[in-house]
């Protein structure tokens, strides 16, 4: 297995945590060692992370985590109880579906370079969405 990612990529770090927790051997391939064209030849989405398994590539961290859970069930990433599993998935999806897409680097660069959002305004954008999500996550954890 090869994991293509970069250390600043939180989605890639989620996958690295799972690989290490499950003690699955893998080769880490830093995206900085590839040109964008080389990486798009591996992963047409061009997003990180991607996991190469034999001659196939899985993109998107949640799909990779589901694959790892299905092929390496021990130790489990999710609780056994279906309701608890759903709660964990909901918690994770708040991050992967709500926070990450709004605050990832390509969105922030688009706001800056294409729309002309200044650094201070960009920070306001970033902090607003982080605070909104973290307030919800903290309420969930408190419950």
What is this structure's SSE topology?
Blueprint: E1 2-5, H1 10-21, E2 27-30, H2 36-42, E3 50-53, E4 56-59, H3 61-71, H4 82-103, H5 105-113, H6 119-142
Parallel strand pairs: 1-2
Antiparallel strand pairs: 1-3, 3-4
Helix pairs in contact: 1-3, 4-6
Descriptive labels:
143 residues, alpha+beta, Glutaredoxin, Glutathione S-transferase Yfyf (Class Pi), Chain A, domain 2, 2 domains, 4 strands, flat
Outline the structure in words:
With 143 residues, the chain is α+β, with helices and mostly antiparallel strands. The chain folds into two domains: 2-71, 3-Layer(aba) Sandwich (Glutaredoxin); 82-142, Glutathione S-transferase Yfyf (Class Pi), Chain A, domain 2 (Up-down Bundle), CATH 1.20.1050. Helix content is 59%, strand content 11%. The protein contains six helices and four strands; from the N terminus they run βαβαββαααα. It has helices at 10-21, 36-42, 61-71, 82-103, 105-113, 119-142, and strands spanning 2-5, 27-30, 50-53, 56-59. A four-stranded mixed β-sheet has the order 2-1-3-4, with helices on one face. A hairpin with a 2-residue loop joins β3 (50-53) and β4. α1 runs parallel beside α3 (61-71) and α4 (82-103) runs antiparallel to α6 (119-142). It is flat. It starts with a strand and ends with a helix. 13% of the residues are buried. The model has no long low-confidence stretch (mean pLDDT 94).
């Amino acid at each position: 297995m090869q994991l293509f990612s970069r250390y600043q990529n939180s989605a890639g770090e989620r996958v690295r945590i799972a690989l290490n927790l499950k003690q699955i051997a893998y080769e880490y391939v830093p995206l900085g060692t590839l040109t964008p064209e080389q990486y798009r030849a591996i992963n047409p989405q061009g997003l990180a992370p991607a996991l190469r398994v034999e001659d196939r590539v899985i993109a998107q961290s949640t799909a990779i985590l589901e694959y790892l859970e299905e092929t390496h069930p021990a130790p489990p990433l999710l609780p056994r109880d279906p309701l608890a599993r759903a709660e964990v998935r909901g918690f994770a999806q708040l991050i992967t579906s709500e926070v990450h897409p709004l605050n990832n680097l390509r969105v922030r660069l688009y706001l800056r370079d294409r729309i002309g959002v200044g650094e201070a305004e960009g920070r306001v954008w970033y902090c607003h969405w982080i605070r909104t999500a973290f307030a919800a996550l903290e309420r969930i954890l408190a419950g």
